[in-house]
Design the sequence.
């Protein structure tokens, strides 16, 4: 009997293997062939509130949900701003101190303030949400809830009624006011205080009008509509105006960021009600937008799901691109309505290897390439060009590469008595270290060749970057045979001796010069990278002391200026050189003003040129100022310029409309998937290997048959008459 059951079970398993769905399929069977994009995330997004969010892992989600006035054209390069919720890209008007209008080409010193008139498109509606639900007589259903009303409510979907309304100009002004709310701690509040007229006064008025916080830490609703603000004014239902101090042409780029997306006052009031915070009911968990998608599921311990917004106002795939886009198939969908997919499912993957294996099995549509998997996917030609391995090409996998508008640099604390300061001794020391730390080697070892050694603070793709010989750092490189070549160790030793440290010896002690590196060690490569870094300094005879710390402590050292040498990175907020050069602007010092100048570098000539350059339009005059600034910074060497990272991304052949866009985060609406092809290849790639089971079954039967024969003989003998 037991044998029969065992064989029956084994037979059922083998028969099930003949079904259509692979055994290892991680998604529900009813999703097979669905118009869904599959991806992953490794860390829970902390903020989904557009006033607070400022991280790329958060923008993956909120950029699909919220719609600021502008966006970047998906295909055009250089990056071009185009309307999103606005009717057109606003052109600033300029005014002098007496309130008289100025021409568009007025010198920056004459401009007292600029104004941006923004007209939004009528007919845009919010996603369905309980904050908009109305009852009898048009009264809001859920804006005056009691604790009893929230009994049994744990998720937003627990509210039985939803509603919507039209987007208005007032929603944009409401969100700008939220940037000044002190308890929201918007990461751009300080910067906007420098540029938006009356912003500091607004923050003070909000603080004065705010009711006291509740015992649970939540804040009672403060209707920001009632707080006056001269910096952003509603003109009519579809128009509002923002007033900016002086001339700040980069402000238009901020209008393409979620910070300036609309927030309805109803959502603010809805989430401010008592009991909401304890249930994780808030904008940080459940955003409210007008975009192509809404957050259908937020379960950061398992998955997050974006679904098509049923109220989406509609948008068309761009009809124009760059040369080569049509041949690459990037204009095949020109003019067709967006979005193309119904949902996007993001699964939690904390480890690289499971993510990579599921990508190869076809269960994720695209993937980055970790160091562990790099050799499986990428090879390099003799000229250093990357191409896919045969295995990847056989699976129809494609490769996209792009040098990011980012920089990772090694900074010297210019307030430090040893490595800092503007003395010739300190400059020579920093330059010697800059030559010795071989970033080409770093990129080859730790980044699998994914990057370019930086020559200055501005990465490729940003105005001001120089190619070729005019773009090299002459203090670290020479130009030989048409390429930049790092200067040799003998030159570094000579600089070190001229700095007063022959062979790396500190004349005060007679021992090796000892310098401190502030390390935030992360990932499996952390120890190897620190070992490599020590070896770079050892070339000069310098002892590098690693002071490991957590990120919060590291941030504190940066604020207080107690660190000595450190590594930091910066991603472009917008495609303008000001967004990188301000990292070296004296008044932006981390120690003195809480800014992003972590090196606390201050050079009066550099600062004067920066103030002149930042308000100029791109052109030869601006380029000349940028060249002069970079020459000063290279001479002073407050940074070891480090590297511009290069992104390598893989995608399956069933995914369409892929083009790297380093400025735009809202590109999910352009993606297309061929779900039928994906399902067919998943079955092909994940066929179960059955011969071990058949072999096991055969061995099991072969082993059991003798016992069965013996058992039957005994039964027959027992049945014979005596």
Sequence:
């Amino acid at each position: 009997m037991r044998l029969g059951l065992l064989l029956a079970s084994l037979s059922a398993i083998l028969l099930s293997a003949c079904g259509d769905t692979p055994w290892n399929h991680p998604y529900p069977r009813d999703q097979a062939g669905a118009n869904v994009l599959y991806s992953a995330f490794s860390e829970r997004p902390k903020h989904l509130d557009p006033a607070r969010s400022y991280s790329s892992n958060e923008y993956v989600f909120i950029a699909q949900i919220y719609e600021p006035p502008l966006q970047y054209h998906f295909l055009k390069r250089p990056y071009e701003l185009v309307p999103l919720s606005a009717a057109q890209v606003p052109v600033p008007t300029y005014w002098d101190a007496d309130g008289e209008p100025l021409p568009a080409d007025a010198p920056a010193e004459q401009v007292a303030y600029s104004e941006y008139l923004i007209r939004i498109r009528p007919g845009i509606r919010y996603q369905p949400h309980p904050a908009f639900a109305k009852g009898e007589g048009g009264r809001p259903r859920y804006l005056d809830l009691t604790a009893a009303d929230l009994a049994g409510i744990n998720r937003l979907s627990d509210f039985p009624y939803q509603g919507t309304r039209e987007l208005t100009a007032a929603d944009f002004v409401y969100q700008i006011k939220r940037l000044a709310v002190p308890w929201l701690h918007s990461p751009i509040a300080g910067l906007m205080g420098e540029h938006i007229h009356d912003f500091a006064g607004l923050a003070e008025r909000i603080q004065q009008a705010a009711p006291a916080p509740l015992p649970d830490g939540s804040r009672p609703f403060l209707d920001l509509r009632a707080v006056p603000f001269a910096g952003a004014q509603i003109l009519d239902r579809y128009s509002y105006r923002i007033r900016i101090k002086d001339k700040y042409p980069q402000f238009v780029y901020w209008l393409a960021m979620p910070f300036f997306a609309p927030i309805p006052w109803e959502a603010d009031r809805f989430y401010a009600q008592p009991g909401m915070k304890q249930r994780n009911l808030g904008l940080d968990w459940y955003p409210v937008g007008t975009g192509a998608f809404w957050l259908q599921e937020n379960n950061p311990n398992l998955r997050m799901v974006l679904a098509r917004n049923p109220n989406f106002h509609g948008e068309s795939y761009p009809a124009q691109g760059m040369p080569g886009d049509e041949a690459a198939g990037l204009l095949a969908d020109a003019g067709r309505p967006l979005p193309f997919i119904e949902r996007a499912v993001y699964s939690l993957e904390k480890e690289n290897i499971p993510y990579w294996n599921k990508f190869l099995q076809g269960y994720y549509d695209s993937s980055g390439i970790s160091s562990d998997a790099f050799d499986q996917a990428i090879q390099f030609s003799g000229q250093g060009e990357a191409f896919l391995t045969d295995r990847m090409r056989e699976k129809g996998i494609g490769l996209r590469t792009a040098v990011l508008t980012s920089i990772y640099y090694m900074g010297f604390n210019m307030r430090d008595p040893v490595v800092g300061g503007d003395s010739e001794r300190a400059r020579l020391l920093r330059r010697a270290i800059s030559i010795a730390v071989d970033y080409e080697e770093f990129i080859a070892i730790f980044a699998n060749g994914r990057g370019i050694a930086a020559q200055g603070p501005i990465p490729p793709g940003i105005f001001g970057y120089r190619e070729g010989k005019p773009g090299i750092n002459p203090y670290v490189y020479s130009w030989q045979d048409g390429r930049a070549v790092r200067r040799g160790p003998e030159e570094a030793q000579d600089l070190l001796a001229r700095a007063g440290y022959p062979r790396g010896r500190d004349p005060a002690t007679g021992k090796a010069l000892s310098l401190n590196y502030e390390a935030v060690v992360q990932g499996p490569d952390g120890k190897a990278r620190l070992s490599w870094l020590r070896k770079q300094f050892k070339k000069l005879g310098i002892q590098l002391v690693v002071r490991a710390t957590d990120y919060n402590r590291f941030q504190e050292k940066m604020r207080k200026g107690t660190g000595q040498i450190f590594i930091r990175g910066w991603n472009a907020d917008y495609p303008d050189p000001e967004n990188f050069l301000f990292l070296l602007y004296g008044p932006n010092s981390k120690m003195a003003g809480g800014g992003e100048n972590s090196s606390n570098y201050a050079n009066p000539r550099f600062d004067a040129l920066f103030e002149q350059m930042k308000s100029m339009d791109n052109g030869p005059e601006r380029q000349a100022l940028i060249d002069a600034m970079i020459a000063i910074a290279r001479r002073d060497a407050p940074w070891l310029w480090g590297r511009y990272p290069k992104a390598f991304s893989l995608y399956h052949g069933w995914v369409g409309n892929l083009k790297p866009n380093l400025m735009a985060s809202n590109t999910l609406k352009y993606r297309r998937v061929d779900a039928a092809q994906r399902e067919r290849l998943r079955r092909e790639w994940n066929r179960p290997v059955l011969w071990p089971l058949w072999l096991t079954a055969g061995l099991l039967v072969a082993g059991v048959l003798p016992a069965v024969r013996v058992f039957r003989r005994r039964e027959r003998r027992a049945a014979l008459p005596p």
In short: The CA atoms of residues 398 and 651 lie 5 Å apart. The chain has a mean pLDDT of 92.
